[in-house]
Q: What sequence folds into this?
């Protein structure tokens, strides 16, 4: 099982980016999916979460600017980031709770991480 994040880059303040996180492998189901971010010298913080039912929740710092969504058919999660600020600069990581096949068994994988994608917002 792999979570592949993409879409990061360099953008000016006020601009937009769309991040994607594609899950691949022997996946049975995906439950909650999350975006975290880690700025240089800081802890990794939760940015947004979306449940399998589509409920969402956001960190106060991104409410009204970021939108999390998912395409269940593609096993992919997105983060639309608008009105970006320099303080949004960070490595963004995707995270999920999912179930995967292993032979005839199903394994629960909680708090499963993908690699990060760097977002840099210039002032």
A:
């Amino acid at each position: 099982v792999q979570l592949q994040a993409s879409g990061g880059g360099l953008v000016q303040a006020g601009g937009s980016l769309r991040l994607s996180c594609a899950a691949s492998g022997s996946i049975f189901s995906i439950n909650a999916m999350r975006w975290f971010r880690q700025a240089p010298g800081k802890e990794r913080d939760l940015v947004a979460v979306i449940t399998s039912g589509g409920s969402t929740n956001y960190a106060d710092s991104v409410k009204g600017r970021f939108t999390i969504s998912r395409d269940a058919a593609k096993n992919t999660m997105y983060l639309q980031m608008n009105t970006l600020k320099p303080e949004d600069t960070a490595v963004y990581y995707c995270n999920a709770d999912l179930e995967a096949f292993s032979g005839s068994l199903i394994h629960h994988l909680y708090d499963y991480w993908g690699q990060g994608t760097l977002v840099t917002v210039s002032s």
User: Anything to note?
Assistant: The radius of gyration is 15 Å.
